[in-house]
Amino acid sequence: MQSLQTLQARWHDGVTLQPRTVSLRVSEDGLHGEDAQIFHAFLSWRDLRNGERVDDEIRFNIPKREERAPDGLLVLPVEPFFAALSALPDAKRTEITRTLKLKQHPRLKFWLLAAIITIPLMWMVYTRAAPMAHVFVSTEQEARLGRSVSAQLKRIHGVYEHPQRQAMLEELVRELQPPDSPYTYHITLLDSRQINALAAPGGEILFLRGLLEQIDDREELAGILAHEMAHVELRHGLKQVLRSVGVMAFMSGAIGGGFETLEALEAATELSGLLVLFSYSREAETEADAWAVERLHASGQSASGLLRFFERLQRISGSDESAWPTFLSTHPQTRERLEKLREAVASE
Hints:
The chain is of the alpha+beta class.
C-alpha cells in the first residue's frame, strides 16, 4: 500500500479574509484533503496543471466547488512539495512534473539572466496574477469598497426619494437573493436623468431616476434588479476594479495578508471614472443574464420583463435621446444575448 507524504498548504477560499491552513496528502493520483469541510477531498494532478511558481511558493487557481462560490487559490511551499514528490516512483514523478508544467528548483546563476526576465515577469504578474486577486479579498472588504462607490455617487447626484419604488426593490431583493449568498444588499436611488443602474462590489446597487422612469412594471424592475444582483454575486465589479489596479495592488504587498487595506482599490473610484470602471464586458453581461434568469425562475417569476426592457432598449437605441447611450455603454447589447433571453422566456 502506498505511503502518502503529508504537507501543509495555505487555502484562500475567496470569501474569508484570512487564508486557512490545510493538510494535504500527496499520492500518485493527486492531492487528498484531510478536511473536506474546508478544502476539496481530492484534486487530480490534471486539476492542478499550469500552476505558477513564485519565489518559494507554488500557486494553483482552484475552480469553485459550488455553483455560486468564488474560485480559490492553493499555495504550496516549494521544498516540502518537491520532497513529497521525491517519495514517489521516478517515472510517476516525471509524469506529474510534466503534467504540472513546473520546473523543479530553478536557479538563476547570473545577474544578467535576472535582468532579462524582469519585463516578462512583470507582464505575467499583470496578466495572470491580477485576475486571480479577487480570491484575496473578503466579502467584508468588498462591501467596504462598494460603500465607498455608493457614497461618492450620492455626493455627485444626490438621493432620489421614491418610497414606493424603494420598497418594491427591497422586496424583490429578498425574493431574488440566493439563500447561500454572503452579501447584504443596499438599494440606493440616485437623482439623475441618466438611464442607468450600477452594481458596485459587495451588494451596493444603485438605480438612477432616469431608468426608473422608463420601467413599465414590476416584472421589468425584477428583471433589471436580478441582472444587477448577478454582477454582485459573480464578483464582476470587484474583478473589474482589480483589473484596473492589479499591478498597484500586487506590488504594494497585497498578496499574503489578504489585502490589509483597500486604499489602492478605493483610489480607482474617483468621481470621473465610476461608470467607466463598472462597464462590463459582453461575456460578463451574458453571465449576468443567465444568473438573472435562473433566480427569476427560482423565485417563481418570469424573465419576460427583462426581455421586454432590452427589446425596447434595442428599438430606441438609435434615437436622438441622449440618455440611452449611457446605459448601452455600460451594458453592451448583442443579438446573441437577446436570443438567449427569448429562448428562456419561451421555455417558461
